[in-house]
Amino acid sequence: MQYDVAVVGATGLVGTKMLEILTEKNFPVRNLYMYASKKSAGKEVEYKGKSYKVIELKKENILDKDIDIALFSAGGDTSLEFAKYFVEIGAVVIDNSSAWRMDKEVPLVVPEVNPEALKDHNGIIANPNCSTIQAMPVLKALSDRYGLERVVYSTYQAVAGAGIQGIMDLQNGLKGEKPKKFQYDIAGNLIPQIDTFLDNGYTKEEMKMVNETRKILSLPELRVTATCVRVPVETSHSESVNVELKSDFDLKEVFELLSNTEGVVVEDDTANLKYPMPLYVAGKDPVYVGRIRRDYSNKNTLNLWIVSDNIRKGAALNAVQIAEKLAEMGLLEGAE
Ligand SMILES: NC(=O)c1ccc[n+]([C@@H]2O[C@H](COP(=O)([O-])OP(=O)(O)OC[C@H]3O[C@@H](n4cnc5c(N)ncnc54)[C@H](OP(=O)(O)O)[C@@H]3O)[C@@H](O)[C@H]2O)c1
């Protein structure tokens, strides 16, 4: 089977990575359409050595095409305005923005964790927030074995999470220039705010982690809290995760369980100073977990350190894996 694919936001950080991952995976692409804003229309974008002209994202440029899958990474407002036209022509939209993640009609999917949710899609599937995605395979394995009581996230999020402009702010900041994307200098600094503040004192990013964790794990009552911090790291989010389980555990068994979890690599050898770090995880597919230890201050509780490439597993890779899973489950129309 081959598929007609649209990449919406093809000139952006996530869009570019999607094209790279489609190439790496040799995804069966028949026709490819690259969309971006008016600003980039007509520019050339490469895929497998061939040049494609960027198409301006507007209704008439969608309705005249035949597209099976539309991979969206062009911001929430763009998704809200244009995804419906792709659905109208029969495409399945896989959306990287937060536009529909909490919509009851829209599956929110990490393919290794809750693929069964894909069966209920109505044309749109949401890719979770990057910092949520990377915790999911680990928490799902712990949830299935021991049950989850409470999760405390503290994140250390890379500037790539804020797109190309975020990376520019770090690189230019290191040369002494003022930031354009972030409100404060990021070079030599930490910013304890990602996205805007809500009335409850949390940021939107923090509440995304709370709500999306509950939805993906189908645990609507799970006690979850989060503090999200932007750090001067280019790529890969890191997070300290404190997990209270419903039953006690044997630490050796936890190591074994996580070592055998799909998409997870245990990197934990403190005697040899081995633990995951963002610089070395960037460019890799799995979720890395280390510093696995008992929290002696609370019963049945674990401390974990989870690191993953936020542009790959946190965005582009997860989206392409959703497309692959849809195809595998027979939920995607294509051409022989
Ligand atoms: N970076 C991450 O870690 C990450 C992770 C998960 C999800 N996401 C989500 O993915 C989306 C893109 O993020 P990014 O990091 O790739 O940002 P980015 O590097 O700034 O790229 C944004 C892309 O969206 C396009 N775009 C913007 N406004 C548009 C419009 N009105 N019509 C059509 N295209 C438009 C841009 O096209 P032009 O070149 O024409 O401006 C560009 O291709 C966002 O929704 C973000 O929340 C990002």
UniProtKB/TrEMBL annotation:
NADP(+) binds at T11, G12, L13, V14, K39, S40, N310. Residues 4-121 form the Semialdehyde dehydrogenase NAD-binding domain. Phosphate binds at R101. CDD domains: ASADH_C_bac_euk_like, VcASADH2_like_N. Keywords: Amino-acid biosynthesis, Diaminopimelate biosynthesis, Lysine biosynthesis, Methionine biosynthesis, NADP, Oxidoreductase, Threonine biosynthesis. It catalyses: L-aspartate 4-semialdehyde + phosphate + NADP(+) = 4-phospho-L-aspartate + NADPH + H(+). Substrate binds at Q157, R230. One of its GO terms (molecular function) is aspartate-semialdehyde dehydrogenase activity. Pathway: Amino-acid biosynthesis; L-lysine biosynthesis via DAP pathway; (S)-tetrahydrodipicolinate from L-aspartate: step 2/4; Amino-acid biosynthesis; L-threonine biosynthesis; L-threonine from L-aspartate: step 2/5; Amino-acid biosynthesis; L-methionine biosynthesis via de novo pathway; L-homoserine from L-aspartate: step 2/3. GO terms for biological process: 'de novo' L-methionine biosynthetic process; diaminopimelate biosynthetic process; isoleucine biosynthetic process; lysine biosynthetic process via diaminopimelate; threonine biosynthetic process. It is an enzyme of class 1 (oxidoreductase). Its EC number is 1.2.1.11. The active site is at C130, H237. NCBIfam families: asd_B (TIGR01296), PRK14874.1 (NF011456). HAMAP family: ASADH. Belongs to the aspartate-semialdehyde dehydrogenase family. Catalyzes the NADPH-dependent formation of L-aspartate-semialdehyde (L-ASA) by the reductive dephosphorylation of L-aspartyl-4-phosphate. Homodimer. This is Aspartate-semialdehyde dehydrogenase.
